Structures are given as structure tokens and as C-alpha cells.
């Protein structure tokens, strides 16, 4: 199994995801199960699908009672290091939250602007983030996001699929 790393720009962090379990992997996606790195009152665990070519990580966050808290989408860059069999997922700061009520929130654009202003994120990367974010939002607003979340759902345990119905 490859090693998974989460790299953050703000704050500057490089976090091995040692406790994440890969449930499925192909050339296009990696699906993982995880528990929160830092305990939270609102949620405790979840499942994520890294869309390696699209620049998205789509996650279902669950409460301790296994009810769905929300769907959280990160804009990411995925880099594979063959020599060490390592995936490095860089969080590119822009995120989309899909609440159970249907509300869609775009968050952390201020952090994206900060990273650009500080020179942490070059203009080509900023353009890539905005294109990935636009594609994700277009998918959500057009109603085709169900196909995206379906890729994740087909690889998670039945109990988790039942919790989101």
C-alpha cells in the first residue's frame, strides 16, 4: 500500500496519514476510510475519494452515531513519488461544503488569497485552483454531483451507505 501524505500550505504542514485505510485504488481515484486527526465534537470519522486527475477530494464526514454530518470537498494537487510509493495530496485551500439541508458553501477563499499574496501559491497554481473549483461547482449546480459522490459510495461499507440514504 502506498504511503499517503497531506500537505497544507497554511499552516505549512506535512502530515503522514498513517491511520487512513485505502479501500480502493485505480489510476483515477483513491478511496480511503479515516478517523479525525484531532478529535472534534461534530464528527469523528469519514470516507474520502481523491479524484487524482480532477484535483478534488470529496469526503463524507460522519458523527459518532454514524449519521452524516456533511460532505466536504477540497481542491487538491495530487503528486505521486514512485521511488517511495507515496501520494502527496496538497490542500490548495479552496473548499466546498454541502450541508445536509442542501446548502452549498464555498469557504477559505481568504486563505487562498493570502497564499497568493505571500508567494506561497504561484499564479499558475492559483489559476488551476480556480478552474478546479469552477468545475466542481458546475458539477454540483448542474445536478451531476450524484455521479461524483457515487464513486465514493460504491467503495465504502454498506453501513455507511445506509446512513446517507
Structural account:
The longest helix is centred in the C-terminal third of the chain and has 20 residues. A hairpin with a 4-residue loop joins β5 and β6. With 165 residues, the chain is of the alpha+beta class. Strands 1, 2, 3, 4, 5, 6, 7, 8 and 9 form a nine-stranded mixed β-sheet that branches. The chain has four helices and nine strands. The termini are far apart. It is globular.
Order of helices and strands: EEEEEEEEEHHHH
Ends distance: 31 Å
Count the strands?
Answer: 9
Rg result:
15 Å
Would you identify the regions where 5 or more consecutive residues have pLDDT less than 50?
none
Coarse morphology: globular
Helical proportion, percent range: 25-40%
Number of helices: 4
Task: Report the average pLDDT across residues.
Answer: 95
Structural class: alpha+beta
Brief account:
By secondary structure, this protein is an alpha+beta fold.
How are the SSEs placed, and which strands pair?
Elements: E1 3-8, E2 13-16, E3 21-25, E4 29-35, E5 45-51, E6 56-62, E7 68-81, E8 86-99, E9 104-107, H1 109-117, H2 123-142, H3 145-153, H4 158-163
Parallel strand pairs: 1-8
Antiparallel strand pairs: 1-2, 3-4, 4-5, 5-6, 6-7, 7-8, 8-9
Please name the defining characteristics of this protein.
165 residues; alpha+beta; 9 strands
